[in-house]
Amino acid sequence: MPVPGKQQIRKLAVARIRELPGDVRSAMDAAICVHILGSPAYRKAHQILSYAALADEVDLSAVRLAAYADGKRLFLPAVTPGEPTVTFHEVRLGEELREGFQGVPEPLCGDPPAAGQSLTLVPGRAFTAEGGRVGRGMGCYDRVLVDLKKLGPTAGVAYDCQLMDMVPVMEFDQDVDFVVTESGFRTTAGPGRVR
Questions:
Q1: For the residues 154-181, what does the mean pLDDT come to?
Q2: Domain holding 182: CATH number?
Q3: Number of domains within the chain
Q4: Is 0.85 topped by the overall pTM?
Q5: Is residue 1 in some structural domain?
Q6: b/e burial code for range 105-127 (CB count within 10 A of at least 16 → b)
Q7: Residue 93, number of CB atoms within 10 A of its CB
Q8: What element of type H or E holds 28?
Q9: Considering the chain, what is the average pLDDT of its residues?
Q10: What DSSP state is assigned to residue 103?
Q11: pLDDT value at position 3?
Q12: Is 54 inside any structural domain?
């Protein structure tokens, strides 16, 4: 059976998310945050690179608040239009965000992540259990994940309904070290990528 193309996978994932009732999604968001906060990757990290969720992404507000309470540095992405590119900037508790590229809340400014143990939480349209990822199609995270992996583990964040058996992967596509859904936090490994 042929592997669906990335556009088909994106449409399928969005349709599946839209079928989830709001209260069910809220409960899933809470469960995902609990799994992240209970993971060794979170406990070991001195800094958390997260994201401000769009309407069809997992809300990680609870992780961001816990990071502050746990004395960890928190970073959020800002997108520079054009290519586009993603850079991460530190956000302090209570600091306002601005509306950035495509309406995504972004830091106004802030220091970049320093060398040290990090956990990067990566949104995506779809993932495989082996770490393959399909994003929104702009390649922003693919361009930055190579460098972020040098700081520590990367974890794809999604709902179970966004997990696919296989996804097509191009030469420049970057996978993640973990995938976390409402079912748990799992290490990735294996052949679930098609080149």
A1: 88
A2: 3.40.50.10420
A3: 1
A4: yes
A5: no
A6: bbbeebeebeeeebbbbbbbbbb
A7: 10
A8: helix 22-37
A9: 87
A10: G
A11: 58
A12: yes
